Amino acid sequence: MSDLTVTVADRVLEATWTDETPDTRAALEEALPVEGDAVRWGAELYFDVPIDAPPENAREVVPEGAIAYWPAGNKLCLFWGETPASIDGEPRAASPVTVVATLADTAPLADLEGGARVRLERAE
């Protein structure tokens, strides 16, 4: 069972919280639902979120499907493949991010063109 529903344009995806960043997760969970017009950067979308949390187990290289908070810009990021910062094809953020959840399936994002409206909310 998923914890979150992530809507990207007309695509509805499921996601599950990770256990490695409890403080950032709590801050984001309190702010839900969050949504915004995302900017695309390679195979990453990011948008503003109304939280301010310090880095927590932050890293640049993330797994495919990572939903991460970028403390440097107060953004939420969805990664599904290479970004301009990638080396050897791995998803890589521009600077360290805090992974808070993981998408169950990233295939629906593969043909996404440009930015999109993104909404993250509790699964029903």
Automatic annotation (TrEMBL):
Pfam families documented for this protein: Cyclophil_like
Domain Cyclophilin TM1367-like: 4-120
Gene3D superfamilies tied to this protein: 2.40.100.20
Name listed for the protein in its UniProt record: Cyclophilin TM1367-like domain-containing protein
